[in-house]
Specification:
Layout lengths: L2 H35 L3 H16 L1 H11 L4 H8 L2 E2 L5 E7 L8 E10 L5 E3 L4 E6 L4 E3 L4 E2 L8 E3 L4 E9 L9 E3 L2 E5 L7 E4 L6 E3 L7 E3 L3 E2 L2
Parallel strand pairs: 1-4, 7-14
Antiparallel strand pairs: 2-3, 3-9, 4-8, 5-6, 5-11, 9-14, 9-15, 10-13, 11-12
């Protein structure tokens, strides 16, 4: 082989190696550029999930019915339920009960009229005691409760009445019990801490002032008069 031939072969070999290296570098750059330009799967999922979750979120789906129904059935149910009658919305009176009472006893009906603008309810036994001396002083012991009487809830429409029967023993049954004329009754509606005064009117009510004498017994509230 001549000296000229060797130089030519080396030149060609170097040119071929340089071309291969350039081709490899070019291919590597192209791959890197393609990877950087294309969207990654992770990036795509992170971008689309929030949008889908917003559209189909269970909390979002239930929020609308809850908000829409907030003032519906619960408000309606509250308007249908009657509240307990208070002393301020009741007007009291007393009348002699038909049939009177057992020997030595007299029956009276304590009448409650609903003077409010909506129905109210009474259930159970009122608290009752004689009062007198012109200033509301309690006379004698408060009434005992006749537990044998029915005590269902009584609804009183506005302008309507209910009653509780009170049995009063005659003072003569107890000898000297310090009897005096009563002005009327202090009455606590069932469950109430406020009372109303029921004037005796034309009735002549004689009350024992001795606290040891149990002169009064009251029955549970009943509808009507």
């Amino acid at each position: 082989m001549t000296k000229q031939t060797k130089v030519t072969w080396r030149t060609a070999a170097l040119s071929g190696a340089a071309g291969i290296a350039a081709l490899v570098a070019l291919t590597g750059c192209a791959g890197t550029t393609a990877a950087e330009a294309g969207p990654s799967p992770t990036s795509t999922v992170n971008q689309t999930l929030p949008a889908e979750a917003t559209a189909t979120s269970p909390s979002s789906a239930t929020a609308a019915p809850t908000s829409a129904g907030g003032g519906g059935p619960s408000t309606g149910g509250g308007t249908l339920r009657s509240s307990a009658c208070t002393a301020t919305q009741l007007q009291g009176s007393v009348t002699a009960a038909s049939g009177g009472g057992a020997a030595g006893h007299q029956g009276y009906d304590l009448v409650f009229r609903n003077t409010g603008t909506s129905p109210c309810t009474l259930q159970g036994w009122p608290g009752v005691s004689f009062v007198g001396k012109g200033n509301g002083t309690q006379l004698g012991a408060a009434a005992t409760l006749d537990r044998s009487s029915e005590y269902g809830t009584v609804t009183i429409a506005d302008g309507s009445i209910a009653h509780a029967t009170l049995v009063v023993a005659q003072p003569q049954n107890y000898g000297d019990c310090g009897a005096t004329t009563a002005d009327g009754f202090r009455v606590y509606p069932p469950g109430s801490k406020q009372s109303l005064f029921i004037d005796a009117g034309q009735l002549q009510l004689s009350a024992c002032t001795s606290a040891s004498v149990q002169q009064l017994e009251v029955q549970a509230v009943q509808p009507g008069s």
